[in-house]
Amino acid sequence: MHQDRVRRSDLRDLVVSAEEAARLIKDGMTVGMSGFTRAGEAKAVPMALAERARTEPLKITLITGASLGNDLDKTLAEAHVLARRLPFQSDPALRKAINNGEVMFIDQHLSETVELLRSRQMGPVDIAVIEAVAITEEGGIVPTTSVGNSASFAILAEKVIVEINLSQPAALEGLHDIYIPTHRPAREPIPIVAPQSRIGLPFIPVDPGKIAAIVITTKLDSSSSVLPPDAETRAIAGHLTEFFLHEVKKGRLTERLQPLQAGIGTIANAVLHGLIDTPFHNLTMYSEVLQDSTFDLFDAGKLDFASGSSITLSAAKYQVVLPELPRYKQRLILRPQEISNHPEVVRRLGIIGINTALEFDIYGNINSTHVGGTHMMNGIGGSGDFARNAYLSVFVTKSTAKDGFVSSVVPMVSHVDHTEHDVDLVVTEIGLADLRGLAPRERARLIIANCAHPAYRDALSDYYRRALARGGHTPHVIEEALSWHAKLRECGSMQSEPASVSAQSLAG
Amino acid sequence: MHQDRVRRSDLRDLVVSAEEAARLIKDGMTVGMSGFTRAGEAKAVPMALAERARTEPLKITLITGASLGNDLDKTLAEAHVLARRLPFQSDPALRKAINNGEVMFIDQHLSETVELLRSRQMGPVDIAVIEAVAITEEGGIVPTTSVGNSASFAILAEKVIVEINLSQPAALEGLHDIYIPTHRPAREPIPIVAPQSRIGLPFIPVDPGKIAAIVITTKLDSSSSVLPPDAETRAIAGHLTEFFLHEVKKGRLTERLQPLQAGIGTIANAVLHGLIDTPFHNLTMYSEVLQDSTFDLFDAGKLDFASGSSITLSAAKYQVVLPELPRYKQRLILRPQEISNHPEVVRRLGIIGINTALEFDIYGNINSTHVGGTHMMNGIGGSGDFARNAYLSVFVTKSTAKDGFVSSVVPMVSHVDHTEHDVDLVVTEIGLADLRGLAPRERARLIIANCAHPAYRDALSDYYRRALARGGHTPHVIEEALSWHAKLRECGSMQSEPASVSAQSLAG
Ligand SMILES: CC(C)(COP(=O)(O)OP(=O)(O)OC[C@H]1O[C@@H](n2cnc3c(N)ncnc32)[C@H](O)[C@@H]1OP(=O)(O)O)[C@@H](O)C(=O)NCCC(=O)NCCS
Ligand SMILES: CC(C)(COP(=O)(O)OP(=O)(O)OC[C@H]1O[C@@H](n2cnc3c(N)ncnc32)[C@H](O)[C@@H]1OP(=O)(O)O)[C@@H](O)C(=O)NCCC(=O)NCCS
C-alpha cells in the first residue's frame, strides 16, 4: 500500500521499523521533529527512542514546531530522553520536568527557531524526523496536518527520517506552501500580500540522498484538548464583537475586519467561534493553528480563506473535516511557522491578533507563560510574533482563575511576555479596555474599572491610589507590587477572605 | 535670500512670523512636529506657542519623531503647553512633568506611531510643523537633519507649517529617501534589500494647498549630549569586539559583520567607536540616529554606508561634518523612522542591534526606561523595533550606576521593556554573557559570573541559590524579587553596606 505514498521508487528500500530508524539517533544528538500544536508529529520514532532509553543512556536536544500530540512529550520526558527541549510544549509531565530543572527548556518566538538554526547560532540539527503523507517522484516530502519547522529541519539536517502515515489522507497533498527565506544579508522580500498568496512548493525539497530511513505508521493525530465555549468565553467574545462593531461605525474597520489570528487554547477558540453570530463577513485568517472555530466559520459562510501552520481539531470535528478536505482545500494553506508568524508578513497584512494571557496588570503588561512568576505553563509560542506586529493586538483571559482564588488582573505581572507597548485591548468576561493612545495612568483606571473581577476591584483601586501618591510614569508601591503572588504562594489565594469568591459566586 | 529655498514661487507669500504661524494652532489640537534625537526639529513655532501660553489657555498633544533639541521639550513643559506627548523624549524637565502626572506620555515603538495615525487608531493630526531646507518647484518639502515622522505628519495633517532654516546647509537636499508604505491590508513589500537601497523621493510630497504658513529661521540644531568613551565603555566595546572575532572564527559572521544598529546615548556611541581599532572592515549601518561614531568610522575607512533617520553630532563634529556633507552624502541616507526601524526591513537585513539597558536581570530581561520600576527616563524608542527582529540583539550597560550604589544586574528587573526572548547578549564592563540557546537557569549562572559587579555578585548568587530551592523554569523568591529596588528607594542604595562600593573603588 505504501507504494503510492513513496512515489520515488529507489527510496522504497529504505523502509525499516521505527526501532531501526531510531537507531540513527545517538546519545547527545540534536533532533528536529515535525509536529505543531498536536498535529502532524512524527509518531513512531520518538516512541522507539523512549523505549530504547530504558536500556541505554540516551539524551537528546529535541526541537519541534510546537507542542506534540499522542502524549509524546510526556513519554519522552518520563523516559528522561530530553536534555533540552524547544521552542514550545504544553504537556503536564514535561512541564514538571522543566520546572524541576531536569529539562532545559528554551522558550522562543515560534518564527525565530529556524532563523537561529539557519545562521548556525543554534544547532546543528543532526537528524530530522518528519511525518509525511507522501514522498514525490522528485523525493520531495509532503507534510501532513502541520508544517511547523519541518521544512527547515529537513533542509538543514544531515539525515532525514520520514514517517509515512497511511491514516493521514492523501488529499492533504497540495495544501502546503513551502517557502524558505534566503540567507541574510542578501534576503529578498517575502512576496506574500494576502492570506491566500501561494509563493512556494507543495512539498519540502530535499536531496533524496539525505533520506536515511522511512517508517510506515498509521496512528492518528490526537484530538485537540480545547473545551467548548462557556458563559464567560461567550461574554469575552461579546465584548470584542461590540468593539469591532464600534470600529466599523467609526470607519476604522470594514465588515470584513482585517485578517484574523487567534492563539491556542479554549478562550481564543471561543472568541473566534463567537464571530459566527455577527454581521461580519468574508473574513480571512492568517494564523498559526487552525482550530475547530476555523471550520465552523467556513461552514457558517463567514470565512473566505484561512492560512495557518497546522490543523488541530476536536475528535468530532476531525471526523467531519478530514474526509471533506478536498472541499475545504481551495480555501486553506499550511505554511512553515516561520512564514505564518513572520513579523514582515504580520505587519504587512495588518492582522488582528487575539492571544491569551494568564494574567495582565493594571498597566496592560501581559504574562502568558509563568504561573506565579516562576513556573512554566506552555511557552510564549507565536503570541509575540503576532502581538508585536499586529494592526490590533488583543489579549483575552477570564478575570479570575482557580475558582476565583486567583485574580487575572494584578498590580504588577509576575513575569512579562508582552509589554504595554504591544497590547491594544485587554478583555475579560467583565469587560474590555481599549488602551490605544493612552498613558499608563489612564490605562490603570480603565483596566480596573472595565476588566477586573468585582471581588478584586477595590483592592486594585486601593493599590493604585497608594501607588499614585508616590508618583512616576507607571506608579507602583514597589515593595508590594508582587505581594499578591507571594500571598497566593503562601495561602493558595490572592483574596483577603478566600471564602468571599467561590466557584459558586463566580458562576452566578 | 529665502527665494532659492522656497522654489515654488506662489508659496513665497505665505512667509509670516513664527507668532503668526503659531496662531494656526488652537487649544486642544494635535500637532505633529519634525525632530528626532535633537536633530531637525521645528524651532520657532514651538517657542511662539510657549510664549502664547503665558497669556491664554493652550494645551496640545505633541507628537514628534523622537526627542527635541534646543530645550524645546523643557520650554513647552514649563509653559504647561503639553497635555499629551509621544512617542519619545529625553528632557529632564519634561521627564519631571511626566513622572508627576502632569503630562500624559505615550511611550511607543518608534516604528509604530505613524502606523497608528494612518489607520486612524490615533489622531487625527491637525497641523504639522516641519523644518525644511527647501520647498521644491512641485511644493515638495525637503527635510533637514532628520526625517523622523515628518513625512507622514505632513501627508496626514490638515495643514502644514514649514520652517525654512537658512542655517541648515542646502547640501542636505538629496540625502533623504521618502517612502510611505501603502494602506493595509493591500500593502506591498517594502523593497529595501540593503542599507543603501533608495526606494523613494528626495522630498516629502504634499499638496501645496495644504501649506498654510512658512516661517524663516536660522537657529542651529543643538549638539549631542553624548560623553566621550571612558574606561568602562571601552571595556564594553572590547568584550563585544572579542565576541565578534570569535563569531568570525566560527564562520557565523564575516569581517564585514552584518548591518549595524546602535542605540542612543553615551554607551552605544562608545561601542561603535570601539570598532575603529578592529580588523572589521567594509561595515554598513542600518540604524536610527547617526552619531559621532558613524563619521569617525567613515573617516577611519571602516564604514561603507550608513542609513538612519537623523544625524545628531557633538559641537566639534558638527563643525567638521556639515560643511563636508557633499563628500559624505553618497554614503548616507536619511529615512522616515517607520522605515529605518521597520520590523520587515530589520529582520530581512539581519541587523546586529546594540541597545542600552538601565538594568537587566539574572535571566536576561531588560529595563531600558523605568528607574526603580516607576519613573520614566526617556522611553523605549526604537530599541524594541531592533531588538525583536535583529540577527543578534545586544544590550550593554555599566554594571553599576550612581557611584556604585545601584547594581545594573538585579534579581528581577523592576520593569520589562525587552523580554528574555529578545536578548542574545548582555555586556557590561565586567564581561559578556552569550545567552543564545540557553534556558533561564543556564543564563542566570552566566550573567552572574560574567556581567555582575563583584560587589554584588555574592548577593545575586545567594538570591539565585535560594530561588533554585523553590524550583520553576525561572526560579524566584517572589516576595524578595524586587527588594533591591525597594531598598534603593528607602536607603538610596542596593548595598548591604553602602560604604563598600564607592566611586573610588569602582574607578580602580
Ligand atoms: C495562556 C494559556 C495557558 C491559556 O490557555 P487557555 O486554555 O485558553 O486558558 P485556561 O483559562 O483554560 O487556562 C489554562 C490553565 O491556566 C490556569 N490559569 C489561568 N490563569 C491563571 C493565573 N492567572 N494564575 C495561575 N493559573 C492560571 C487555569 O486555571 C488553567 O489551569 P488548569 O489547566 O489547571 O485548569 C495559553 O493560551 C497559552 O499557553 N498561551 C501562550 C502561548 C500562545 O499564546 N500561543 C498562541 C500563539 S498562536
Ligand atoms: C538606557 C539609557 C537611559 C542609557 O543612557 P546612556 O546615556 O547610554 O547611559 P548612562 O549610563 O549615562 O545612564 C543615563 C542615566 O541613567 C542612570 N542609570 C543608569 N543605570 C541606572 C539604574 N540601573 N538605575 C537607576 N539609574 C540608572 C545613570 O546614572 C544616568 O543618570 P544621570 O543622567 O543622572 O547621570 C538610554 O540608552 C535610553 O534611554 N535607552 C532607551 C531608548 C533606546 O534604547 N533608544 C535607542 C534605540 S535606537
Automatic annotation (TrEMBL), chains A, B:
Its EC number is 2.8.3.18. Residues 329-463 form the Acetyl-CoA hydrolase/transferase C-terminal domain. Pfam families: AcetylCoA_hyd_C, AcetylCoA_hydro. Keywords: Transferase. Gene3D superfamilies: 4-hydroxybutyrate coenzyme like domains (3.30.750.70), Acetyl-CoA hydrolase/transferase C-terminal domain (3.40.1080.20), Glutaconate Coenzyme A-transferase (3.40.1080.10). GO terms for biological process: acetate metabolic process; acetyl-CoA metabolic process. One of its GO terms (molecular function) is acetate CoA-transferase activity. It is an enzyme of class 2 (transferase). CoA binds at N378, G382, K402. The active site is at E288. InterPro entries: AcetylCoA_hyd_C, AcetylCoA_hyd_C_sf, ActCoA_hydro, ActCoA_hydro_N, NagB/RpiA_transferase-like, Succinate_CoA_transferase. Residues 9-215 form the Acetyl-CoA hydrolase/transferase N-terminal domain. Belongs to the acetyl-CoA hydrolase/transferase family. This is Succinyl-CoA:acetate CoA-transferase.
